[in-house]
């Protein structure tokens, strides 16, 4: 194989110029259309002929005609021009309307209890958007792992991410009606004597002390312990339903259970502070905000901001 005289990108550019020369019927006309000099257009075609090792055009003072190799090259050159135009058109459309694949990530519990019920309505509004939703209870690097959007419970957007607040996240103390120590909890301090269940994002085998506020606004911090420490709110919920202890959980994970009486709220007059802050939509400001991202963020804000 002959070594390449010009690079792939230059060869593609030369083929586009060649296709324009054939369509225009002359080097002069093609140069005017391309905004180049006639000599620059001529050199592009000459380099292409040198690269391909074939004469592409029969030149005369009155007209140009394709050689047999030129007919073959011209057919491929027209395909390149067509693909280039199609690419520009699709990108232009992408910049105008929500479409394409949106890669999102959230925790297992949030994805199950909050996002999944909303997706049908989102698809009804944006039928050209597809969602790849990855649910994991771990820190996800949006930039390294290629996600367009993340939903996290956090006080503020972590560096270097940008974000938009979606809603406050209320945490509640709850237990199964069959939990043996339920009647013994009359004050936040009583929690220290009971089996407690909570979420832990790290590898610690101990629960972080719980902070509660009484009806008068006085905060109390209680050192709690229990039979299990897990990194999944849904597992905490399941253990709480089974009567293993008092759980501290986001309300969105247990609202149906409370409504159906499978769980009861413990110390309902006290306000519990969760391990995390409000829910935020997060994205990388290093990448251009695409319509599909904006559409999802605006949709979530409209549906969740009153939560």
Description:
The termini are far apart. With 307 residues, the chain is an alpha/beta fold. Helix 1 packs across helix 2, helix 1 crosses helix 4 and helix 2 packs across helix 3. 40% of the residues lie in helices and 21% in strands. The strands form 4 sheets. Strands 4-3-5-15-6 form a 5-stranded mixed β-sheet, with helices on one face.
Task: Provide key terms for this protein.
Arc Repressor Mutant, subunit A, alpha/beta, transcription regulation, disordered N terminus, rod-shaped, LysR_HTH_N, DNA-binding, LysR_subst-bd, D-Maltodextrin-Binding Protein, domain 2, 307 residues, transcription, five-stranded mixed sheet, 9 helices
Task: Present the secondary structure layout.
Layout: H1 8-24, H2 27-34, H3 38-52, E1 57-59, E2 64-66, H4 68-94, E3 100-106, H5 108-125, E4 129-135, H6 142-145, E5 149-153, E6 162-167, E7 171-175, E8 196-199, E9 210-213, E10 219-222, E11 229-230, H7 233-241, E12 246-250, H8 251-260, E13 264-265, E14 271-273, E15 279-283, H9 291-304
Helix pairs in contact: 1-2, 1-3, 1-4, 2-3
Which range does the strand content fall in?
A: 15-25%
CATH topology of the largest domain: D-Maltodextrin-Binding Protein, domain 2
Order of helices and strands: HHHEEHEHEHEEEEEEEHEHEEEH
What's the CATH architecture name of the largest domain? 3-Layer(aba) Sandwich
Total helices: the number is 9
Distance between the termini: 67 Å
Helix content: 25-40%
- Biggest sheet architecture: 5 strands, mixed
